[in-house]
Specification:
Structural class: alpha/beta
Strand order of the largest sheet: 7-6-5-8-9
Bound molecules: phosphoric acid mono(formamide)ester
Strand content: 5-15%
Oligomer: single chain
Radius of gyration: 19 Å
Number of strands: 9
Order of helices and strands: HEHEHEHEHEHEEHEHHEHH
Helix content: 25-40%
Low-confidence stretches: none
Length: about 300
């Protein structure tokens, strides 16, 4: 198969296992490209991509922009904070104005779940979801699974625990869909208040005990507490959260096997993960960031092949 089954990437839920494997195979080639002295290919010289961000971002925004430049696409960047959205312009009007300037693809981060799907139904351009509220963050899940595959040889059969604020995390939901489609076993771990009640329906195990979860897993993906999305208190204090669910070197060294540590960023050092764990040789946090560029190049390249030229 050389083609994705979807015309847009709005969520991992819509992808088949074959789609994910095609993205990984394509990303393997692009990873080789970005490690060459000249890190660029001319593939998308005729394509223009708009990166429109209604929420803050460091990694995703820079990674998409670099991926687009490495593919020789033209790019425009839009930040809601400094735009006419502040004057009351709607999402559709904003995007249609950008598209009137002959843009072929839109990469969008938005605080509302479903925003990317909504956009993909309203505009002609290909749409990539760069995070829609608490819903999905598909390219993060793809780069996470790609990084596990790179480190452990495959994702099939591996045991992955996602620790932290599962309730507010788009990374958790996209990771669960992606890992399950690739044949991994998945567990979520955190305080009862931060684990959604429907989670069992997704076929994942649940633990409220960090040590038990770490003893079980091959890979631990540590998530930050999303205080900006919490309108009520879900646990007594950050100090108590860290005591029960924070990963430190003493816990890591006390395990009977060496596990892989991941984090999508941004890290709150000393809360969900200590600095010596984040910077340890078991951590693949910066590999995730590096792989993000190759994986996003693959997604953009494969979706661009569906644009009528
Ligand atoms: N992982 C991630 O989405 O990071 P940013 O919010 O910095 O893009």
């Amino acid at each position: 198969m050389n083609n994705l089954s979807v015309d847009h990437l709005t969520g991992i839920k819509d992808l088949t296992r074959a789609d994910i494997e095609l993205i990984f195979k394509t990303a393997d080639s692009f990873k080789e490209v970005i490690n060459r002295p000249i890190k660029k290919v001319p593939s998308l010289r005729d394509i223009t991509i708009a990166n429109i961000f209604f929420e803050n971002s460091t990694r995703t925004r820079l990674s998409f922009e670099l991926a687009e430049k490495r593919l020789s696409a033209d790019t425009v960047n839009f930040s809601a904070a400094s735009s006419s959205v502040k004057k009351g312009e709607t999402l559709i009007d904003t995007v249609n104005n950008i598209l009137a300037m002959k843009v072929d693809m839109v990469v969008m981060r938005h605080p509302n779940p479903g925003a990317a799907l909504f956009l993909s139904q309203k505009v002609k351009a290909r749409v990539i979801n760069a995070g829609d509220g608490t819903h999905e963050h598909p390219t993060q899940a793809l780069l996470d699974a790609f990084s596990i595959r790179e480190r452990l040889g495959s994702v099939e059969g591996k045991k992955v625990v996602i620790v932290g604020d599962i309730l507010h995390s788009r990374v958790a939901l996209s990771n669960i869909y992606c890992l399950k489609k690739l044949g991994a076993e998945v567990m979520v771990c955190g305080p009862t208040t931060l684990i959604p009640k429907y989670i069992g329906d997704l076929g994942v195990k649940v633990s409220h005990n960090l040590r038990e979860a770490l003893d079980w897993c091959d890979v631990a993906n540590m998530l930050r507490i999303q205080l900006e999305r919490q309108d009520i208190k879900y646990f007594p204090s950050l100090r108590e959260y860290t005591m029960l669910f924070g990963l430190n070197k003493e816990i890591l060294d006390g395990l009977s096997k060496e596990i892989i540590i991941m984090h999508p960023g941004p890290i709150n050092r000393g809360v969900e993960i200590s600095s010596d764990v984040a910077d340890s040789c078991q951590s693949i946090i910066l590999d995730q960031v590096e792989n993000g560029v190759a994986v996003r190049m693959a997604v953009i390249y494969l979706l661009a092949s569906k644009i009528e030229r």
